[in-house]
Amino acid sequence: MTHPEENFDYYENICCEVSKEVNTDFIPMAPEIVQTSSFYFPTYEKFMDASDDEKNHYVYSRGTNPTTETLERMLAQLEGGEKCKVFASGMGAISATLFTLLQAGDHVLMVNTIYGEAVSFIQYMTKYGISADRVDVATTEDILNHLKSETKVIYFESPSSQKFELLDLDLITAIAKERGITTVIDGTWSSPLFQKPLAHGIDLVIHSLSKYIGGHSDIVGGAVIGATQLVDTIFEHGHQALGAVSSPFNSWLAIRGIRTLPVRMQHLSQAITTLLDGLAADTRIAKIFHPHCGNTDQQQLAQKYLTGYGSLFAIDLADESFDKLKVFVNSLSLVSIGVSWGGFESLALPAYKGNNLTNLQARGLSPAHIRMYLGLEHPESVLADIRQALDKAYGPMEEC
Ligand code: PLP
What we know:
pyridoxal phosphate binding, single chain, PyrdxlP-dep_Trfase, EC 4.4.1.2, Aspartate Aminotransferase, domain 2, homocysteine desulfhydrase activity, PyrdxlP-dep_Trfase_small, binds pyridoxal-5'-phosphate
């Protein structure tokens, strides 16, 4: 004789029975997580209708899921876009988007110091007959010198990773629209709050949700936002087929992050100017890379396009000694060593890893270049920490 607990049906039955006993007369303060892989259909006809149009029906969570759709609708609204699709990572969104947009014979132009993994992905796509160039431009007009008749996509960040240079979005749109080129911006630095590229005619905005949107260094996610027709095509080919899907729980954590995004971003926008103003006079730092410290042209672009500042920036140390750089980074105590950014913790990440000088030269970066992220600690405390580490590595600052 078998016990009922050994029968699988028993578990399905108690799940159904017990869930009916649970009081459903409540309104949760936090949105619900629909943590399911698949959805039931009451009839075969309903299933056939749904599976014919998976982007608008819940069939299987690799395609659509109510928690993930809640996040997508929030992000689309924040960016002022028609539709959003979220992914398992920022790179998931970037690769799915470019995989969908490009085909053999097409050329893609990457402008300025975009995220390294995105460059690697685009370069890898050349094995499918796509050509690609990455260029550094002094002004946005210079983009014109690098376009080809087969250019189909301009891919860029503004501000860019590592050098945090801004481009003129209206000008890029004007250049691209005339030539039928699709424009894609990675807007992670500004978050959807501080820059609205779609309002300036950019076709698609990508975000790594792993940064400010998640906001707590506990998720990896990505998103692409734009016109419904474009995002639906990316859904069909880049999302459904490549499968870099956000789990309902990760989507839920991103929703939680968005609920505090404005408070965190407004704080950081103020705090970063305090920190950068404190570092500006330090003679041990040769250059600070951030729109707040940019030249007149950059300040004008910041004025035009940004309504606040992200807190990711970089410094070039005046002394390029690798040994001293190691002492500096190892002497930081409030600021930690680590990749990624956008969470609570302030971070430092030198670009030079002892073996990548050629790569740095190709990207126009000094071996004494350090990407830094101001987190939610007090900016004065982070400033004091950086100063004491500079003292240890380079000696006290010379008075001018
Ligand atoms: N875009 C920028 C500007 C980034 O800094 C990163 C990641 O570090 C990415 C995209 C990639 O995002 P993810 O790490 O979520 O794949």
